[in-house]
Amino acid sequence: MNQDNNINQYINTSIDTKSHTGTKLKRCSDIDEHNHVFDELHEECGVFGMYDFDGGNVASTIYYGLFALQHRGQESCGIAVSDTHGPKGKVTTHKGMGLVNEVFTPDILEPMKGDIGVGHVRYSTAGSSTRENAQPLVLNYVKGTLAMAHNGNLINAKELRKELEYTGAIFQTTIDSEVIAYHIARERLNSKTAEEAVRRACQKLKGAYALVVESPRKLIAARDPFGFKPLCIGKRDNAYIVTSETCALDTIGAEFVDIEPGEVITITQKGIESDMTMALAKNRPDACLNTFISQDLTAILTE
Q1: Is 288 a catalytic residue?
Q2: Mind listing the pLDDT tens digit for each residue in 44-62?
């Protein structure tokens, strides 16, 4: 049986693109790392990042954004914030197992001060459901710190992990996100800017992903070249937001701006910069597919 026929035998459903939900599948639609078959379509994590140019604290707004994205993941959640006018290496982080309103109480949110930050809600597709695998991930390395929230699945994650392990990397989690974070940190050593390091790392990735990366003075977002995973920008007053779905923008009263497939966005005090280096040529037919692809490419669902 050829690949097209093998894929087509799994297609027996439709997706409501307005509500971003799927009807119950009668055949394989989602397979995890142990080849367990699920009978429902899951959203697989949500990301939220914010940079307030006026210096306001963003933790409470990120909380409400994650609350709006709760349908995308209910296993764990987390927030990391820092002050762009403070010490570069200081990142305040809290994450835990459970729903957003269970993990974050007013006593926890109140001391989380900072005008830039990222948040995450998780539904595990790779790696076990433990606190160690909760995001955002925070890396301290020779160039400073990075906090990253990631949504997606990589089909070459094992190869990328082995590449790092054979050069001495020690992993603290079992998720693809740490592999990406390590590659960003390594690329940063040979890149002039953090956004260049993110782009160069993303060019190694194969699969579906949406990233939000917080550096000490920048908020960086990247979307895979095929646009498999959703990502958008919002603006509220003098603050910019990057998130998985517009429902999070509606919740906090932000104006919607889209991010194109393959685009890398950098938000600094100077404004927004766009890098389309990874974008596919518009005349390529595969750039126009409206598809959902599971982790091992066994299912493609089209409108």
Answers
A1: no
A2: 799 999 999 999 999 999 9
